[in-house]
Amino acid sequence: MADISEPAGLSPASATLLRHYRAQVMTRRVYSILIGLGVLVALALAMNYANAANSGKFFDRLPYMFDFIKNFVPRDPLEIFRAMFDLPSPYFDGSAKYDYTSARVYITDSLYIPNFIYQLIITVNIAIVSTIIGGGIAFCLCFFAATNLVGAGAVRWFMRRTMEVLRAFPEIVIAGLLTAVLSIGPIAAVVAVSLHTIGALGKLFFEVVENADMKPDEGLKSVGATWLERVRYAIVPQVMPNFVSYGLLRLEVNVRASTIIGAVGGGGIGEVFRLSIGRDYAAQTYAIIIMLLVTIIVIDQFSGWLRRRLVGNQGFNIAKESV
User: Fold this and answer.
1) In terms of domains, do 63 and 168 share one?
2) What is the pLDDT of residues 226-273, one digit of tens each?
3) Do 170 and 251 sit in the same domain of this protein?
4) Does residue 136 form part of some domain?
């Protein structure tokens, strides 16, 4: 007997396919419901554990979660801009909370750089130097990790495992270990971010190389070109636009990573931010947040514009059409 929900006029084979399709849809819905219930149960257990770990105060304190943000406000909104540009504060009482002028970095007797801008420059420099070093080393290693260029499995296996190890640990963990060896400062941050960048960009780079058109390589190989010549003239021109695009994207990530590393002694704006929020300096904290936000937006817009110039608008238009 045919299912009454089946459309009329279907052949037996089509009706069977329709029933199988509906059965699969129903099975998928059941699995989705079970997974959702599992997530809810896990969330309830996690919250119960958090409540027990906080001596039963977790749920009691939930209504006061945003009290810190509500109470952590500057005395005057203009104080944010005074702190940002090291301008004298009318509320200066001899304490460091309103002493913005003493942190100026003087270039000449009358010309100075505001301290937060100076620290932000250090953070951006850490990101740029780390991206150049990490990207350069990843560029050299990625060709040895590509299946279509290296026949020796041992070399390819070693390169890939090395990249996996380098990107396995977050930058802040590497920086924490390096500060014990290289002391506190930007050098440890540069090394930590560079190591992670080698692993992250190396993987992206060799995947781009593996998708390159090998016909130019075959042509150069047929006329006796060496492996380096084949890579230089057949592969590099194809992959460089994507390499630069990934490098610019990684620069944005490294700016954020350099800020976080600064909080553990890597120098730059992150360290100043940690001290400001820890000392309850509201105006200085909000000034740093605004500067970081503007910096990330500017870098994102610039890298997006540069990627368009290098890769072309075709890839971006395809993405828009698919939305």
Assistant:
1) no
2) 999 999 999 999 998 889 889 988 998 898 888 888 877 778 898 898
3) yes
4) yes
